[in-house]
């Protein structure tokens, strides 16, 4: 049986970004394996006939658990003759490439979903993550990037295959899936979760709840706006290490009526249909699949001015870029969109035009060309 291995630090990364690519290989007759830290969603992977390997990854590059994870990866690669290893996420990608080197497993390709080092980023990120990437590049046959800044950095690394650095349109989005435009469903969702009417404005923010995603910028901006008007709401979708802290802040400041955290959800298209604006307030972002989903749904964007958002947002055209943690600017931008339905509609329409280049069909074609290059090589 021909076997392919995907490696990522956490299972939700595989589930959220890579199911179409797993199915791509399965449809070609490959047996797909996944090496990740399995959790309460592992049955979803097993449900699509993926062979799962539980790896004791830690997201922290400092954790001693990663020595155990490396040993587990080495054992998996020794037991299985993989025709291709595709690694993701900084720690998972570093250890996956090191294990491949130790077991002479080739080829290995790496998708950088947003380097943790970036212009203006913290010095410690450059010391740790840039060094990790520079070292691991020597064990890599191909690097795939999803934004221009990362592409330029990746071209400077010394990898095993000449001209083996690529840029693609992210992980792709199923455009038809996210555009519902169902008025009755919209009203039902708005009433169910926020008691909001059609005259109210809902900003939806989708993603893991952690410090990097910086949902607090949205919460504090809504808090400020509510001192002037009470028709602006926020839906925060996701789970993570900062959820309890955000919930406590919301409760302590009596914001429960206007801000709801709904946790992990599988009905993202319906929630987007019920919303008016898509927001993303990360300190660092590779490309932002949630922004692509929002654009497909016809929503205008408010996002922090990061390398990933700049790829998708033409400022003032299909949305607005705001500085990281600039509450004043964020408040002004939310109010501008909240007060102008015509502007929201116009920007949402422009976003739907832009997102056509990021469709999953187009990205699968891009990836097919890359995968074919490596699967057809002799190592």
Description:
Keywords: Transferase. The chain has 379 residues and is an alpha/beta fold. It has two domains: 3-172 and 359-375, 3-Layer(aba) Sandwich (Rossmann fold); 175-358, Rossmann fold, CATH 3.40.50. Helices cover 45% and strands 18% of the residues. The chain contains 17 helices and 13 strands. It has helices at residues 11-17, 19-27, 42-46, 65-79, 90-103, 123-136, 148-154, 175-178, 183-194, 216-225, 243-252, 268-273, 289-296, 307-312, 327-338, 341-354, 360-375; strands at residues 3-10, 31-37, 51-54, 82-88, 108-112, 142-145, 165-167, 201-206, 232-237, 259-263, 277-280, 301-304, 319-322. The chain has a seven-stranded parallel β-sheet with strand order 3-2-1-4-5-6-7. A six-stranded parallel β-sheet has the order 10-9-8-11-12-13, sandwiched between helices. Helix 4 (65-79) crosses helix 5, helix 5 (90-103) packs parallel to helix 6 (123-136) and helix 10 packs across helix 15 (327-338). The mean pLDDT is 94.
Descriptive tags:
379 residues; alpha/beta; Rossmann fold; 2 domains; seven-stranded parallel sheet; 13 strands; glycosyltransferase activity; transferase; Glyco_trans_4-like_N
Q: Would you kindly provide a brief summary of this structure?
A:
The chain is 45% helix and 18% strand. The protein has 17 helices and 13 strands.
Specify the overall morphology: globular
State the helicity in percent bands.
40-55%
Largest sheet: 7 strands, parallel
Number of domains: 2
Q: How many E-type strands? A: 13
- Alpha carbon gyration radius: 21 Å
Q: Quick one: CATH superfamily of the largest domain?
A: Glycogen Phosphorylase B
Number of helices: 17
Which structural class best describes the helix and strand composition? alpha/beta
Q: Give the end-to-end Cα distance, rounded to a whole number of Å.
A: 18 Å
What is the string of helix and strand elements?
EHHEHEHEHEHEHEHHEHEHEHEHEHEHHH
CATH top level label of the largest domain: Alpha Beta
Low-pLDDT residue intervals, each spanning 5 or more residues: none
What is the overall pLDDT average?
A: 94
Widest sheet: strand ordering: 3-2-1-4-5-6-7
**CATH architectural arrangement of the largest domain:** 3-Layer(aba) Sandwich
